[in-house]
Amino acid sequence: xxxxxxxxxxxxxxxxxxxxxxxxxxxxxxxxxxxxxxxxxxxxxxxxxxxxxxxxxxxxxxxxxxxxxxxxxxxxxxxxxxxxxxxxxxxxxxxxxxxxxxxxxxxxxxxxxxxxxxxxxxxxxxxxxxxxxxxxxxxxxxxxxxxxxxxxxxxxxxxxxxxxxxxxxxxxxxxxxxxxxxxxxxxxxxxxxxxxxxxxxxxxxxxxxxxxxxxxxxxxxxxxxxxxxxxxxxxxxxxxxxxxxxxxxxxxxxxxxxxxxxxxxxxxxxxxxxxxxxxxxxxxxxxxxxxxxxxxxxxxxxxxxxxxxxxxxxxxxxxxxxxxxxxxxxxxxxxxxxxxxxxxxxxxxxxxxxxxxxxxxxxxxxxxxxxxxxxxxxxxxxxxxxxxxxxxxxxxxxxxxxxxxxxxxxxxxxxxxxx
Length: 419
Hints:
By secondary structure, the protein is α+β, with helices and mostly antiparallel strands. Helix content is about 50%, strand content about 15%. It contains 17 helices and eleven strands.
């Protein structure tokens, strides 16, 4: 199926949350879902989540559903086939209730689904809806990350591993349980560990490590020479996490920042020095240190130069300057004074912007989740280019690129907020 670009601006309510809680019962399903069907299951749950226990049925625009899953919105035959598969797939749970009593249950993933007039209507059984809404063990499945997957086995492994990211390991699974989680139980071909490892485990691990926010590593347990159990060691993917870091108002794009990093200064310290002293002052001290020849500890010397304002010593008293030189010096002083005032104004603007962003964070924290979703949707609707919208989606209300628009937006909602 051809992929389509997911435009979050056109989504509202629960669909803008991007992540959805999935109970063990919803993740550990019996059945052989395709990649499309597994993605569809996650999006339907995301759409229904807020009203899982209060509404008997749920609806979603069919084209929106197709867009979020990432396939041709006109291919309703495929959508019908995928909904049919979910209705025929069984979810099974086996867990302790609040009193410590064992509870076993089974339900189809969807109790019914229908398409009518471009709208998909569907429902969960009451028992399964309760489990999905109030999970004791759950994972947060990001529907943006799931779009990166191109195989159902890779996505299935990601779902089953992600909920253990805090513990660092899935624990040991017997191979027959693992085959069931991957949807290959009952296959004579995959009863061979050699085939299972080559066709399922290795490709799925590679895709999870390439496409998601976690890194996993399989370990095997043997009885004699036969592999009997498997577990996965799990940690965060630093490359994926890197993209979630704010750009700190473009500081990382400055030449002086890059020079500091080349000299071995950490990211945090480089940004701190630039914020405290300004890029011109830091560049002066970098030039000073560079002129001192072989320095044992560049970081320590640079820190001292910034702290103590090291200056290049005067060699000798220059001759009396000419009137032209005096005038040129005066002009430079005027220009420097103008630059200093401009720098002070920029520093004041940065300080004021930082204060206002803190105010915005406080205002947002007072809003309930529904109001926050509505606020973001309303703000995005007022942005007129893709760059602004993409920056806001990444950084939210801390988006430096949209700071002016953010302050105007909240000023209209809370007139006295910044006074």
